[in-house]
Request: fold
Amino acid sequence: MGFRKKPLKRSIFLFILGFITLLCLVLSVMTYRTFNTSIYESYDRRMTDILNYVYSNIDVEDLSVCVETSVESEKFKEMMTFMDSIMEDFEIDFLYIVRPMMDRDPITVMNIFSADTAEGRATDPDGYYLGLILDDVYEEKDIITYNDALQRDTISYFKNFSTWGYEYTATMPLINSKGEHYALLCVDIGVEDVERAIQTYTIINIILIVTLGILFMIIFIVWMNHNVTEPIGQLEKSVVSFAMRSHEQKNPELLSYDDPHIHSHNEVESLANAVNQMSNDMQLYAKNILDAEGQVQVMRTKVSHMDIVAYQDALTHVKNKAWYDKIESRVNNDIENGTARFGIVMVDLNCLKQINDTYGHEHGNEYIFGSCHQICIIFDHSPVFRVGGDEFVVLLENRDYDDREKLIKALKDAFAKSADDSKREPWDCYSAAIGVSIFDATTDKTMNDVFKRADEAMYKDKVASKKARQ
Reply:
């Protein structure tokens, strides 16, 4: 009677082991996929913004002629300067324009322009020139991918290997007035470090999940032994003892069995006490759950605070690009509902790179902070966003929208006065290019339409100010 095919302790252990293993596997896969998706979605948004911004400053028709003739026009040279400035301002690996050459054997890619930093131009002033055939740079499958992207009318995203490394690429087709897809505007960001970070994050989380799973399994098994299996074992001993004493027993006086009444002092009472202990443990467990819920609520509050921090620029304490995107969704809804009434002020700081190079990034940060403070003082009733290293956006609504002309003049006067104040330190002489655009319900479909006009006005102001300083 002592033979047991499936001991209870072993069954419980195998079940918990299987459950914890499955739970760890599911949580690990979910962690990897969620983090991986989040990372690449953020890269897609950033690269799309860069492509749209660069595209808005390209003369598509003039560039089409340059590609066909392999002759650089004045606008082409201006585009080169502009794209080089983008390489200075944004943390990207490559910014370039290419054309897949599918009619060559073997197929290859023609370089139209490759942007570079000032340091890169200093070491290689000619760089990759217009019309350069990039043989042995791309594999055939990657050239086909570039050509497929060229035939589309939308932005494409893909990973590719080249002699420059493993890159994540976003491409935008350039289409002339004839409808010809003649080139690709591309931006690359290296993904090796990103994927290494994803792997490291995933491994750390897997170790944490497995550790917690093992800890839970140990605690659960100890608890089960104390509250379930041991009491049942005591009951089993009592029953087996009775059976052994009863086996082939012919003397009725000797057929004794300790009656397991709940209130009697025997093995069943021990089991009853164990069940009662389990009830107490369940109460304690429920209390722990409630305490855990309280901790979860505290954590939710902390997460909410972290969300606020996530939408705030660390240096200037104004809203960042992520919050601007959320505001853009709200404004676009107002435009669809016909209730939109707003304007956009685009501010791009002048001379930041010069201050960083001459006096150091610490003073460069002081320059950014002081300039932002000046903007916030003028537009104290409007949200201010830092959308780039030296770019700020002000959304004019309500009172500031009504007083916009007075406020914009005040901002320009404040920057002009600061820039001309010879008594100040160079990093306290704030200067900026300013562009303004007002929403027009007859032409603007989205907030981005207004933003583009403000950005163009700001760029014109920056060009004019550079000429004035020369």
